[in-house]
Amino acid sequence: MSQYVLRRLMIAIPSLLGISLVLFVVLALAPGDPFSELATNPNVPPEVQAALRARFGLDDPIYLRYLHWLNAMLHGDWGFSFVSRMDVDTLILQRLPATLYVIGSAQILALLIAIPVGVYAATKPYSLFDQVANTLAFVGFSLPTFFTGILFILIFSVTLDWLPFVYTTDIKATGIHYVLEMIRQAIMPVAVLGLFQAASMTRFVRSAMLDVIRLDYVTTARAKGLGQAKVIVKHVMRNAMIPVVTLIALQMPAVFGGAIVTEQIFRIPGIGSLLISSILSNDTPVVMAVTFVFACLVVLFNLIADVLYGWLDPRISLR
Amino acid sequence: MAPLLEIKGLKTHFSTDDGILQAVDGIDITINRGETLCVVGESGCGKTVTAMSILKLIAMPPGRIAAGEIIFEGRDLVPLTSNQLDEIRAKEIGFIFQEPMTSLNPVLTVGEQIAESLRRHENVTRKQALERTIEMLKLVQIPNAEGRVHNYPHQFSGGMRQRVMIAMALACKPKLIIADEPTTALDVTIQAQILDLLQDMKERFGMAVMLITHAMGVVAETAQRVVVMYAGKVVEEADVDALFADPGHPYTQGLIRSIPRIDLDSAHKTRLEAIGGSVPILINPPVGCRFAPRCKFAMDVCTDKEPLLRQIAPGHRMACHLGDTQLGGAA
């Protein structure tokens, strides 16, 4: 197993190199760079601009700049953000916790809703519960998060004034009040993101369960007199979860993408809003770093999916 | 002595988009203790549905036991809830399914699948259950049972899996084993081994076997008594010798003639006989005899009046108008 993971990580190296190359080239071809702002600044003489560009190697050919970036990355130097005036890695580490907190909680919420609802709906297909769950799920994934987010803000912040609509990292409270405030301000973004995820996941769990529930070995389990609960949990769920796990793991990158929108709506100072603001301000080193982090996450979650797959399904041997 | 299992007037219906499908339509089957009863008929005759109805293993809905009694050791199983039936499933009545390739859970070890039945029905520890499981695997002649008990189904061949299924069905020493076409999915050589094994086990534990099959060869080898089903009805019932010596119903005669024979010399070799047509779909079945459209002896009365089971010899009953003196028909 550990050998398999190690080999997969080795295979990940060339793919990450490839991804970084594509990202770098695309960004290099895009108009604007961190110094384009200087060009419009009349206080900076053109020769100073040229000297700066030369010093930072911005006029070098792309392959040299890429090798330069790669070399720096390998030495743990993620670059410098000219807009924020700080190192990119510090910046990302500053922003990452908020994103992980919101996305993690949203995923947990989604699983806590999707698995019980999907499983129960599948045991009683076409019952009232199933139909209500299906309808709600359909509504849920038809509504985009930027719509439900604003709707939530309108209802819970503006009209009812129950929850804050701006997420802040500098809460002026300590101890239990700090914790409560952290939870309070996360409720809406977590609910918006989590319910959206839960909607599609519920449908998927239900259909995966229905695929398994009709199989012969479930009848075998019933013929052993194990009882409905045990048959469902031990024999049906265990098998139905194999595709579900894959889907969830492979969906994670999309979840991060969706979080970018949610972070914008609720002003969460996370990695997603960092990406957007740095794109807008031509902060190339940050854009490069954040997109590269996303790429690493995709590779990581693919690996997690494969390992879980092998663990859930003994027919797949990880060698 | 009272029979072990008595099915009386069982009707199992399925609701479909096209109407009610009467898969089993009023059948009586009796199984005595320690006896092997074969239920034969083509695919779609209601054999499997009959077997599955006994322990309510059919999908409900759309399936439904519309009428009848299933009396097991003096107790009617039909009104019991699924929870109440769980006490009888595997403990009193064991099941062997047709497809060993799909009837075992791929993500659990075979040992776990046998042991869970023991742990459910008998007051045993995990360790005792494992020991008994290994014992069962040895009994069904799985080599290296101690090692194989921790293997997954995909590590076994079809024949070996069917042995595992038999071990599973026998684990709690039930009084009745229902084997639904246990050899259909297997090679001919393996078929014989599995049938021998079943026979062996039956003798060792003294249980009754209800063997469902469409192969008359299997019937001849294993059965003591035979029930022939056609289109959801019992058309003939007899001891195995009487059935092969003097088959009454044209359908039974057809089934017997459709067995390939190698004992005839080349002068007598003829094309293997088949019964023309196929089993009707049992939504709004026609009145009269359901076999009439395929029967070469069909008379006018056959499409008007349903033949009822009647005794034609001691212990030999059939449902056919042929030779019925009250109708004046010719045999």
Automatic annotation (TrEMBL), chain A:
Keywords: Cell membrane, Membrane, Transmembrane, Transmembrane helix, Transport. Its main location: membrane. Gene3D superfamilies: MetI-like. Residues 96-305 form the ABC transmembrane type-1 domain. It is found in: Cell membrane. The chain crosses the membrane at residues 100-123, 135-156, 176-196, 240-266, 286-312. The keyword Ribosomal protein does not apply. It is a multi-pass membrane protein. The keyword Nucleus does not apply. One of its GO terms (cellular component) is plasma membrane. GO terms for biological process: transmembrane transport. CDD domains: TM_PBP2. InterPro entries: BPD_transp_1_N, MetI-like, MetI-like_sf. Belongs to the binding-protein-dependent transport system permease family. PANTHER family: INNER MEMBRANE ABC TRANSPORTER (PTHR30465), OPPB IN A BINDING PROTEIN-DEPENDENT TRANSPORT SYSTEM (PTHR30465:SF97). This is ABC transporter permease. It comes from Bradyrhizobium rifense.
TrEMBL record, chain B:
It comes from the Bacteria. Keywords: ATP-binding, Cell membrane, Membrane, Nucleotide-binding, Transport. SMART domains: AAA. It is a peripheral membrane protein. GO terms for biological process: peptide transport; transmembrane transport. It is found in: Cell inner membrane. Residues 7-256 form the ABC transporter domain. GO terms for cellular component: plasma membrane. InterPro entries: AAA+_ATPase, ABC_Ni/Peptide_Import, ABC_transporter-like_ATP-bd, ABC_transporter-like_CS, Oligopep_ABC_C, P-loop_NTPase. GO terms for molecular function: ATP binding; ATP hydrolysis activity. Belongs to the ABC transporter superfamily. NCBIfam families: oligo_HPY (TIGR01727). Involved in beta-(1-->2)glucan export. Transmembrane domains (TMD) form a pore in the inner membrane and the ATP-binding domain (NBD) is responsible for energy generation. This is ABC transporter ATP-binding protein. It comes from Bradyrhizobium rifense.
